[in-house]
Design a protein that fits this description.
Two copies of one chain form a homodimer. By secondary structure, the first copy, chain A, is of the alpha+beta class. Chain A has two domains: 66 residues, Orthogonal Bundle (Arc Repressor Mutant, subunit A); 91 residues, 2-Layer Sandwich (Gyrase A, domain 2). In chain A, 34% of the residues lie in helices and 21% in strands. In chain A, the strands form two sheets. A four-stranded antiparallel sheet of chain A has the order 3-4-6-5, with helices on one face. Chain A has a two-stranded antiparallel ribbon with strand order 1-2. In chain A, a hairpin with a 3-residue loop joins strand 5 and strand 6. Chain A is rod-shaped. The relative contact order of chain A is 0.11. At the A-B interface, strand 1, strand 2, strand 5 and strand 6 of A face strand 1, helix 4, strand 3 and strand 4 of B. Chain B binds a DNA duplex (30 and 30 nucleotides) through helix 3.
Chain lengths: 159, 159
DNA sequence: GGAATTTTTGCATATTAATGCAAAATTGTT
DNA sequence: AACAATTTTGCATTAATATGCAAAAATTCC
């Protein structure tokens, strides 16, 4: 049969256009195109096309043609790198982990220091949050450890 | 049960590591972790996680967590890319860095928005913390940028 | 063309997945 | 803590999907 290839083609376009949720519905639509096959064949077709059924946000199932790449972003987890404290007001320590900087201060000092860091409007930083004695700073992706160290040396002792 | 979210996480990691092909096998593996649920529950879990079964190159079926580009495409076809207007109040910006999301708001709005995000109880999120104008959200390991973007589009404009 | 070989299909059925419903567990409220 | 409201789950069953096998088509080879 020369039909199989055409049918597979048609199935793809039907699945992309309509919201098909099961193989019987698909068979029905194919029939309206003059193609008459059983559910068993469609099961094989969908397997060949790697079509899968997935839940939509509406709570119903629809067929999609998934990407063939298995995505796995692995988290970069660098070890902590501690730096001895100096005599900056309230400063206790600064540590890096991945793209996060954690600054510890004596109690009550964190908000003030965080404010200063915020006000620098550094493009290296996408956000800071301060508790009473801890500041979390999220660095922009791609910022190197050295860049960060250089920047933070404006605020705290970094040797 | 507080177990559900843990189970969902475990399911994700099991599916990514092993080649699971049906819900009974999954149940069996979960049982080896001390988690005992029925196939019915797993069907619901997989629906919630948008896990789908797809033919591998070996000719067998395995579960995967599909690429969200495809999902978004099919969502867009269904015309569901609207953002509830009430949930944009005070929003300023959203940025990603590694597994951290930083949302900036106008002063005072962060706690409310963070609360809404918390209440969504997304399995993608490990935790959130809010200051006055900034929210930090830590994503679960393995959550792709696309997945995250899709999720946060429920809360803030992402275009 | 015709026999041999490979591919595709339907049938019947086994396997797998989804769901209505009531009960149990959890969460929210006061 | 007690009650109400919501969520989660299992059971039982239905719905949907996959597949062994034999037959029908298509393809290849002489």
């Amino acid at each position: 049969m020369r039909n199989r290839r055409n049918r597979l083609q048609l199935i793809i376009s039907i699945i992309k256009k309509n919201n098909i949720g099961n193989q019987n519905d698909l068979a029905r639509i194919l029939r309206s195109y003059g193609i008459d096959v059983t559910q068993a064949t469609l099961s094989r077709d969908l397997k060949a096309l790697k079509v899968t059924k997935v839940a939509s946000d509406k709570g119903e199932y629809i067929y999609i043609i998934p990407d063939n790449n298995e995505l796995q972003d692995s988290m970069l987890q660098r070890g902590m790198h501690s730096i001895p404290s100096g005599q900056q007001a309230g400063f206790v320590s600064i540590n890096f982990s991945g793209n996060i900087v954690v600054i510890k201060t004596r109690n009550g000092y964190a908000p003030g220091l965080a404010y200063d860091i915020d006000m620098s409007k550094s493009p290296l930083i996408i956000g800071t949050i301060a508790g009473a004695d801890t500041i979390f700073i999220v660095l922009k992706e791609g910022v190197s450890r050295d860049e960060a160290i250089h920047f933070f040396s404006r605020f705290v002792p970094m040797d």
